[in-house]
Amino acid sequence: MRKYRGVLLVAGALAVLAAATAFYVEVRGDSAPASPDLEILAQIPAGAPTLVYVDLAAIRESSFYKNRPDRSPLAVPDSDYAKFVQATGFDFEKTWTAWRSRPGPSLCARTEKTVAVAEGRFDRQKIHDYAMKEGKLDHQQGHDVFLFPSRHPTGAGSTRSATEPTWNSLVLLDDHRIAMVEGPSIAPVLAPHGADSAADPARERAARVTGSAMFVVSRVPPIPENFAPGGMQSAQLADLVRSVQWITLAARPEGENLRVSAEGECLTSSDARQLQSALEMLRMFGQAGLESPKARQSMDPATFGVLETLLKTADVKATAERVRILVEITPDILKLSGGQKKK
Question: What are the φ/ψ torsions at residue 150 (nearest 5 degrees)?
């Protein structure tokens, strides 16, 4: 669903950046009290291998955001979403998104099923008018459902024509909450969903990082047999990568700093220790590479400064089956990256 997938992709890209440049989030124990955000999650269908959460209001209110060198507004750079916001005045503050993979005829033909529930400010009449102009109104289970057309590029072997539209759904749940579903039916949201995290591994992991301003929890897809990152084939490396079952990327502003955590959950504690050792070795190689005069001369000073600081301050820890990378983004790092952007 292109309109909402743009939101997902941006959230995913920010989270991947967090893995390399990282925000620390304090992981809560199983006895942590229930969060209102988890109540929103209860409206998301269980079983999705990927969950994305963004608390845009918390980010905007943080000292980190207000005092950042780059004063441009925080927005989602997706043309469809920007058009929707402009026409309806919708401004989301919190959103939960479930990204469910559906197997196609082949591994390469896998598609995604996206369901999102967002809290924020919106104008019902403007959304209605926009839907009547761009799509159509449907009635499902006693709710007015707005359907919007979306066209997707087709791949090899697809039976869908390049111009054949699909429909995406939007329903207003109350005065401050809306739900968006990839497909013409809003049933995945309107069906009752239990909040029992024990029955849903993604939710159980999401509950551990409640309090974050943003996070992504995702099950790692199967690693192909010919896995060779950068052309480097290594059975030991492939086995180590295959041992990672889940990845959790989380972010939280803390004062003027931004703390990021990137956590990989392995099959065994032994795998986790080996992964920690591999990451520490990569960090040493990176630091050694930056000490080369050639690297300093060939690299932009701002980029060099950011990488040097992150490699020095990144903390890699292994606890039981989990390996976590922690890095704190400080105003000094932001100034370095900001100087690079101006150039």
Answer: -145, 135
**Per-residue pLDDT tens digits for 172-195:** 988 889 998 988 998 888 876 655
Mean pLDDT lowest among 69-73, 210-214, 314-318: 69-73
Tokens of 72: 């441009």
DSSP 44-59: SPTT-SEEEEEEHHHH
What band does 96 get if pLDDT is binned at 50, 70 and 90?
Answer: confident
Number of domains forming the structure of the chain:
1
Q: Could you give the C-alpha distances from 133 to 55, 83, 129, in angstroms and in order?
A: 30, 13, 6
Question: In this structure, what token pair is assigned to residue 159?
Answer: 């039976």
Sequential DSSP letters for 195-239: --GGG-HHHHHHHHTTT-SEEEEEEPPPPPTT--GGG---HHHHH
Handedness of CA 75, 79, 82, 86 (dihedral sign): positive
> Containing domain of residue 131, as a range?
2-342
